[in-house]
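Supplementary Methods, section 5.1.

A reviewer requested that the exact input to the structure prediction be made available. We therefore reproduce it here, unchanged from the version used in the analyses.
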Amino acid sequence: MQNKTVIITGASGGFGKTFTKAFLEGGYHVVATIRDKAKKSVLLEGLTPKEAENLSFALLDVADEESVNNFGSFVQGLERVDVLINNAGFAVAGFAEELSTAEYQFQLETNLLGVMRVTNHILPKMRQKGSGRIINISSISGLIGFPGLSPYVSSKYALEGYSESLRLELKEFGVDVVLIEPGSFQTNIWSSGTHMSSNAGNSNSPYLEMFKGMNKRLQKDRESYGDPVEVAKLIWKIAEMKKTPTLRYTVGKGVRFSLLAKRLLPWRVWEKIVLSQIRNKD
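The structure derived from this sequence is encoded token-by-token as follows.
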């Protein structure tokens, strides 16, 4: 019997590389999508010969229609697709007043529309097979807003709504849609995976102090970020689950407490807590 097949978008990034390793260790045939051929070496590093044999590469830029259509042709040649992990993503940071609509569009092309494009090429195979799992990597930012990240937050909130609707549409076809909502983990999302607005941090910006406070908070918290392996273990568990998984899975230090606090506290109290975390105190 042919190995189960998982497609992982953005496979060479922080989460993606970890997911790739976990599914190869589990005996899956992994299709790792990358934007740059040079990233192959990143994923091949440290693999056993057997794992390397089970790894396939596909060039894919989820924000580019032509690239996704070419990938769709590649997908047609696969005998099966059991799991799709929509992991490709990045963050646009900046303050709403200083951001252009083009920057919001730039964000949505990958984090939302890219997921939709790729998923639509995978769905026919899953429907015909009568089974499959689509796992969309969202974020706690899809449930909690944060200043300075409105493009990223908006993209993840939209991903949540899309995924919830898609799950209901696919239920009768035996295809499950799942959202993973991580907190802060040690990936490149807040470094090379972040596009900072050119206006952010300007000396004449009315949001300069808030910007400084955000940076301080980011540096302070970085050492406490979680290990991506924790997320990979959760996704593996969901992929192998015999029963139907639920829609949402939160993961990460303090995530459940934050969500509970937002739900139960009066808004005025909640916003004071959020803003106090980024207040710039020299």
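The chain is about 45% helix and 15% strand. These observations are discussed further in the main text.
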